[in-house]
Design goal:
Elements (H helix, E strand, L loop, with lengths): L6 H22 L1 H23 L31 H36 L1 H15 L3 H12 L3 H28 L2 H8 L4 H9 L4 H24 L11 H8 L8 H28 L3 H4 L1
Helix pairs in contact: 2-3, 2-11, 3-4, 3-6, 3-9, 3-11, 4-6, 5-6, 6-9, 9-10, 9-11, 10-11
């Protein structure tokens, strides 16, 4: 008597094998693992740091100003006597919020623009020429100009960075969508009478997610740098709100007397950007294993 083959069991086994293969590829990808560890450590500090410290990031104790790192103040104090560790931790929350929100919103807008430009020929020239015009400005200078118009505010920083980085994502999504647009199955779907909306968002959009995710991680890291630069120049997060850029700006005035005011926030910026870039490179290799061979 022949045994019956259970399709559900075969499907379940295939999914299990895919998960096992993905996990194996993940842990064999050193860039991905290293970046994930750095970002996970940063997130843990950001989330649980305020629960550890008993200091207020805004509380000024003039008698404790510019104290070197000690058991009482792990990162020392700033020129107003505020605990530097507390301000760096709260500044991490601001930087991660701005970076993540900028990457998210620019990905949404860039994806929509890129998909529309790839599908509708009459929109392609218009949308891409606008993107080219916006990309012609250096990111930091463009962000400074936008902040001069919008005003120094956390929400405005997110809006400015979203405008700055959306064109980059739009071009990447468009280039991938143009390839998918010419596939035979897309022509077959259109021949069956599928609406433009269904073709774009049901069949083309999912095939652009991989390069979009990779680019979003790099946009995240770029947004952290640009936000710190804006705050350092006084055009970003307004003082006295804690921000890595604000802390560096205060530290430049006393850099020879209080090195800790520039070293610790600078290290947090370096490690966060390094972790995000490693994560982006690892994600690219994980999605496309042949990319490192081509490069």
């Amino acid at each position: 008597m022949e045994s019956k083959i259970d399709p559900n069991k075969i499907k379940s086994n295939l999914k299990k094998q895919e998960r096992t293969l993905f996990i194996r590829r993940f842990f064999s990808n050193k860039l991905m693992v290293t970046g994930s560890i750095i970002i996970a450590a940063l997130l843990l500090i950001t989330i649980f740091g305020p629960l550890i410290t008993s200091y207020d990031p805004y509380e000024m104790v003039v008698n404790d100003r510019l104290q070197a790192p000690s058991a009482e103040h792990v990162f020392g104090t700033d020129d107003f006597g505020r605990d530097l560790f507390t301000r760096v931790v709260y500044g991490a929350q601001v930087s991660i919020l701005v970076g993540f929100a900028s990457a998210l919103f620019s990905s949404i807008i860039g994806m929509a623009v890129g998909l529309l430009a790839s599908y509708y020929r009459f929109l392609d020239n218009l949308l891409m020429r606008i993107c080219d015009g916006l990309l012609s400005f250096p990111a930091i200078l463009f962000a400074i100009a936008l902040m001069a118009v919008l005003g120094a505010k956390t929400e405005n920083v997110i809006i400015a960075l979203t405008i700055v980085f959306s064109p980059e994502i739009a071009r990447i999504v468009r280039s991938r969508a143009l390839v998918v647009r010419e596939e035979t199955y897309i022509e077959a779907i259109e021949a069956q009478g599928a609406s433009s909306f269904r073709v774009i968002w049901r069949h083309i959009a999912p095939n652009t997610i991989s390069p979009l995710l990779v680019k979003a991680t790099f946009v995240f890291s770029e947004a952290v740098i640009v936000e710190a630069t804006l705050s350092f120049l006084g055009a970003g997060i307004p003082a006295p709100d804690p921000s890595w850029g604000n802390i560096l700006s205060d530290g430049k005035l006393v850099i020879y007397d209080a090195w800790w005011m520039t070293v610790f926030p600078g290290l947090f910026i370096v490690f966060s950007v390094l972790g995000l870039n490693l994560l982006g490179d690892g994600l690219r290799d994980l999605i496309d294993p042949h990319s490192n061979i081509r490069n």
